[in-house]
Write a structure and sequence with these properties.
Length: 128
């Protein structure tokens, strides 16, 4: 099975482009989350996956962005909603895990770039 090399782009009435750019615009408050249909974003991704086999990393990336968008939209639509201490901890934990996933993803990009260059150097261990 071939893995798609084409990046996933979402096409909405108010935005067209990569999903991570959509998330950045929303986080920077340059685009209102309430203008975005998360169901439409998900439907488009499911259609994309049906036509383009993908690797697990791309699926994880989509889930990370989708979960972040869902948290942002929930807070925007239901600002009066109060959470129990346990639920608040779970939300904070999820946000932390999503940030860590994004950091690992960025680190992976740097590692892939280094591996593509095929220029490695290894230090020698000192003998005791």
């Amino acid at each position: 099975m071939l893995v798609s090399s084409q990046p996933y782009h979402v096409k909405l009435q108010v935005f067209e482009g990569p999903l991570d750019v959509l998330l950045n615009l929303i986080e920077e408050k340059k685009l209102q989350i309430t203008q975005i249909s998360l169901a439409e974003v998900t439907d488009q991704f499911v259609d994309y996956v049906g036509k383009n086999p993908i690797e697990g990393g791309m699926l994880a990336e989509f889930l990370q962005v989708a979960a972040t968008l869902l948290i942002i939209k929930t807070k925007a639509l239901l600002p009066f909603l109060t959470f129990s201490t346990e639920e608040e901890k779970e939300i904070v934990d999820l946000e932390l895990r999503l940030k860590l996933l994004a950091a690992f993803r960025e680190g992976g990009k740097g590692l892939r770039k280094t591996l593509r260059k095929k220029q490695f150097s290894f230090g020698r261990e000192e003998l005791e």
